[in-house]
Structures are given as structure tokens and as C-alpha cells.
Amino acid sequence: MTTETAPPAAKRVPSERTHHGDTVVDEYAWLAAKDDPETIAYLTAENEYTDARTAHLADLRADLFEETRRRTQETDLSVPTRKGGHWYYTRTVEGQQYGVQCRRAVRDGETDPPVSVDGAPLDGEEVLLDGNLLAEGHDFFSLGAFDVSPDGRWLAYSTDFSGDERFTLRVKDLTTGELLPDEVPDTFYGTAWSTDASVLFYVTVDDAWRPNRVWRHTIGSPAADDVVVHQEDDERFWVGVELTRSEKFILIDVHSKITSEVLVIPAGNPTGAPAVIAPRRQGVEYTVEHHGHRFLILHNDNAEDFALAFTSADVPGDWVPLIEHTPGTRLEAVDAFANHLVVSLRTDGLTGLRVLPVGSDDGYDIDFPEPLYSVGLDANPEYRTGRVRLRYSSLITPDSVYDYDLVTRQMVLLKQKPVLPGPDGRPYDPAEYEQHRDWALADDGTRVPISLVCRVGTPRDGSAPCELYGYGSYEASMDPWFSVARLSLLDRGVVFAVAHIRGGGELGRRWYDQGKLLAKKNTFTDFVACARHLVKAGWTASDRLVARGASAGGLLMGAVANLAPDAFTGIVAQVPFVDALTSILDPSLPLTVTEWEEWGNPLDDPEVYAYMKSYTPYENVTAVDYPAILAVTSLNDTRVLYSEPAKWIARLRAVAPGGDYLLKTEMGAGHGGPSGRYDSWREEAFINAWILDRLGRA
């Protein structure tokens, strides 16, 4: 590795803050000034330094990118989904960064989705939106809303060209192809149409970028005339809006981390006042799905892993049990169709689907063949249907789309994501890879699951290199997923592992509760226990183990770097939440107040303050030998500010000099990184090349 280039010098400008009698000095607070030319110059210099330090990996990056490109069917077409009189689908075209949104009219007697040959456009295709045309002249492009009105006439869509997740909402007339003069800036995700498509509901954010208002827009009128339908003033809560599958009701979801409330408006009476299904009660979460004369209620009222009930859609009141609470079986969602309900759940660390025929006690779970997999419902916009679309994958099975017949119980594979031959010309064969479920033992005796995938024949003598991925927050589960880019690692002998640590939702609500607030450190010690177990079990050795995580998983990376620097030879932290205490102390920052029920409120609670200070990565950098660290961030990220990893890397260099610390900032992107598919492949190739270099497989 090149060592001649020196890292940029981050000036120290001490800034003090005092909370609960504790004074903290932050020498790098100046980096939070995004509009300061000195900040931009410093980030640019860091990028140049990273480029110089990784220049020797240019050929490997090119190889990895080319391997992903060659294995991907670049011109492709998604399985069309029926809604009303049309089939809707997305096409990709070789050489183009973004998808093309299309539809085609349903033909007489047509019940199965039409098939495309080699991703070619369907005969009779109508292009609704071409992301490549919209993105012209912009370095970043993201589509927020894409919502066709119930009558199929209007398309509401929104665009973001900076990565800050603030979208401009527009309406397109699909009969003429013309844009209406209706235009609403600074909207958030979420839209809903009235029955007659005369009214469109949307969401905006407050000064802290918290989604707090639902608006009603009348098609053909100026945005200045729009009406606030619901405003949420409690800063712990955020709002969302959607149309039920039945297209009978507009749902306004009001949610904090632990409490929720749902309001409804009849879609046929869009100017009506919202009615509350059940008033919010602290600690009670519920979601609503409309089904005939009832609302289905998925809730955790005296049901830790949630139960399913219903109430009258005419006069909502008491909740009548439908599926009783079963500890260890986490009910996650319910989807209603005219004659069936489908419940998404998880048990023993695996996802599943349960079908409940209406008017029958003959409910059943759908069986799947592999020991490790992920399954869930795909897009199913039709309410009156006898089959549902689902998506399935595993660590060795590419993303697969099925239609499941709710009456005959037959599952038909419609499409499996093609994996084309790699550089050696050989087709992808899942039999050449194997997946495993292993278990680590945490410090407190808790068994922590680990999912692993590797090539068949990979040695178990500690000689194999390994990448260990983790997240562990917000009850988000890192269920097994397939990755084309990952094949380049596996084929070079790398073992890929996922640590299903507490704070995630893999083993139910209790698994989440044991990894948040004043139990957050379990997330970090679980991950270290998984790393130690992989070494003890012969999967790898500590000098052949790289850790990787993003966002809250980036907090995990920073915490384990402090907790067990000897356990890893390298750490990749993407958009990392490494200055958590500073951010959570500042209620003016985006999302801070809504996060207090996840991390605690260090402003008001000295115990929370002391606990967070004891683990937040930036506060706990010490003069030890850290593993090599690559931090990747984005300048326009509104969820985790770029300044957090920038400050962290600067402090690492000052307190623990001699380490190998790199910072890479995307100067025109947001939380998700580069927006185009080729750009995202290059970003992944950059990270994987760095990982292979650390593992001695470059």
C-alpha cells in the first residue's frame, strides 16, 4: 500500500458543551459547517488522500465492477403486476443508470403476466416515466412517490436531485402524456388518491425534517390552496399517508418509536374530517388494514410479539381477537384480500407467511425448502384476487418472484433474477456454495444466531478470510439476502457472515428491546461474541476478519472498534452514526427527538447521558492499535450527518496516530449513497476491493 501521501490535517478548534455537570471538549465541531469553504476543502482533501492510498487497487476495482456487470442482465424487465386494466412493470436498459416505469393494457382473457424476451419492451408498451430522462443534467436522482390514480388516468410522482430526501411532487396526465401545472416542492414520501382521483394527499416535514403534516391537494388548483388535513405537534411522532388496497379509505399513520395512532378518511369523501381508529396510548403500537366491514388491527396491547384483531369499519370500537398472541412468533404485517388474509410473521429467526381464508378456521403457513431464506409479499395492488405475488431469496438463491394460488396452494415461479456467467464463462451454480446457521454465546449466556455463506470446500481451519456484517437497531432484521457483487468475494475464498445481534428483530420484540436504550451495549457485545465465535469455530482468524455496517450499523462498527480492536483486521463503516451523543443532545437536528425512544433522552436524563457517553464511538477513541478503518459518507445525508465520520476519522488520527484511517465522502449524494446502478456498483467495488486488500486477497 502506498504510504508516501500524508493525510490532510484537520485543524483543532475546541468547542465546549456541558450537560449534567459534565464538560466535553469537541475539537472538530467546525466540520459540521457544511456551507463553510474550509469544510468542503477538507473533505475534498480527504477524498484525494483516500484516492492516493487506494490507487494500487484500481485494477481490482475495475475487475470487481466488471464482474458485477457481466453477471447482471443489464437489459431486463420486472414481472408485470396487474392493477385494474393494466400491467405495470419496470425495465432496465444496458448502459442506462435508472429504470423505466411502464405499463401495458390487459388483453381479453389474459390472466397471467406477459413475458418479455431478454428484457425487451412489451408489445403495446406505454412509458410512464423514464428515470434516465429525468436524471439528465443531475449527478443524483431519486424517485420518491410513484402513485397511479385508481382510474389509471393520473400519475403522481416526486423527484429528488440532491439526496436530501426532499422531493418535488408533480402530476402527469397519462392519457395525453402532459404534466399538469400542479407542482408541490419539499414533500416527503407517501401519497394517496381519493376514489374519483380529484384529490391527492401528501406529506411534508417541519424544520427538523420530521414528517409532521398531511395535506390535501385538489387536482388543477395551485399548491398555495392546499389544506392541512392533519398536523402532528408532538415531536416524538411522525406521520404517513396511504390508500388502502380496497381503495375505500385514506389512512393517516401517526407513529413514534413505541406508540401509534391511525386516522381514516373515506376515500369517496376526501374533504371529510379524519376519524381516529383508537386514541394513542403510550407504549401501544397498532397498524390498520381495511377488509370489508371491518378494520384489521395488528397490535401489541398486552401482546409483546403482536396479535391480530378487528373492529367495525362503520363504528370503530372494541378490538375482537382474530389471532391470539403467541410468544416467539412475531406478527409483522397483515394484508387483506377479498377472500383471504395473509399475515407476515417471523419465528425462530426466519420469516414466514400465514394464509387465513375468510370464513374458515383452516389457516396455514406456506412451506419453503431452504434452512435459511427470506420471504415476503411483493406488490399486490388488487383487492379481489385469488393469488398473491411473493418474493423469495436466500444467501445462495437469487431474488425469485412467485405467484401463489390462495385456493389450490400452488406456487409458480415467475422469474428468478438472472445471474449470468462470470469472468471464467461458467454459469452460476448454487450447488457450488453452501449456507449455514451457527450460534455464538454472548457474555450473558444469550445465544446469538449467525448466518454464513461460502464456497463449498472452504476450509474450517481458521485460514479462510471472512467479512462479518451487522446492524442491530430499530428492530430491523438482517434476513438472508442474495448479492451478485458478493459472489466476487466468495469466489476469492471469503466467508460472508451476518451477525443477528440484539437490537434487531430477528428473534421477536424482546430481541429488539434487549438491544436499545439502557441495554444498547448488548448490540455491541453480541457482535464481538459473534466475531470471537467465528474464530473459535475455525471459520476464520482475527487477522483475517473484516467487520462491516452502515448507518446505525456504523455506530456498531465504531463501538466494536473501541471495545475489541484486536478482533478485526479492518472495519468498514458506511454513513456511520458515530457521534451519537452529540446528535441526540441536539433537538434541532433532523430526527433527534423522534430517536429518544430508541436511544434515550440524554438531555433530561443523566443516566442516559452517562450510558451513551460510555459507548458512543467519537467520545471513546483511545490511544490503542485500531484495525484499519474505511468510513464512507455522503455530504447531503440528512439521516446521519457527514460530519460524524469526518470528526471521528480526525480524532482517530489525533489520538491513535499510526493507524490506517480513510474517509470517502460522496459530494453529491444522500444516505443511500450514489443513486445510479452503475455508480452504486462502482461504490461497492471500491469497498470490496478495500476489504479484499485487508484480507490478503487483492
Automatic annotation (TrEMBL):
InterPro entries, A to Z: AB_hydrolase_fold, Pept_S9A_N, Peptidase_S9_cat, Peptidase_S9A, Serine_Peptidase_S9A
Entry keyword Protease: yes
Top-rank taxon: Bacteria
Positions of region (Disordered): 1-20
Domain Peptidase S9 prolyl oligopeptidase catalytic: 481-696
Peptidase S9A N-terminal domain location: 8-416
Alphabetically ordered keywords of this record: Hydrolase, Protease, Serine protease
PANTHER family tied to this protein: PROLYL ENDOPEPTIDASE-LIKE, PROTEASE FAMILY S9A OLIGOPEPTIDASE
Family: Belongs to the peptidase S9A family.
Protein name per the record: S9 family peptidase
